[in-house]
Amino acid sequence: MSLKENTQLRSARPFTLQLPQIFPTMTEPDTITVLHWYAQEGEILQPPDPEHPVPLLEVDAPYGDIEITVPPFLRAPHRVIAILKPENATMHLGDQFITLQAVDTEVA
User: Fold this and answer.
1) 3-class SS at 79?
2) Beta bridge partners of 66
3) Which domains does the chain have, with CATH numbers?
4) Which of 27, 30, 59, 99 has its CB surrounded by the most CB atoms within 10 Å?
5) Which pLDDT tens digit goes with each residue over 68-103?
């Protein structure tokens, strides 16, 4: 591994996704419940195809069940480092729910 490659790997720090506004009238007091995770800790998520979004988790919201997909801004594979909200946990707008880290495609 070259110095450049090693530096790039070290600079790929984990980051945490926050719950976005998943329905038009959602505000912080609204509660949703995690029903099912499609991803698991340690799994590598591939960048999504805009025409075929990949579900990340399913939640129960006031307007029914909603699938939250892998964010479209992920342009490279990412490993699931931690699931912060397990199934049956409640969440609010802005809550952190998953930690991801970019992975080197040659290592993945």
Assistant:
1) strand
2) 59
3) 3-102 (2.40.50.100)
4) 59
5) 999 998 989 999 999 999 999 999 999 999 999 999
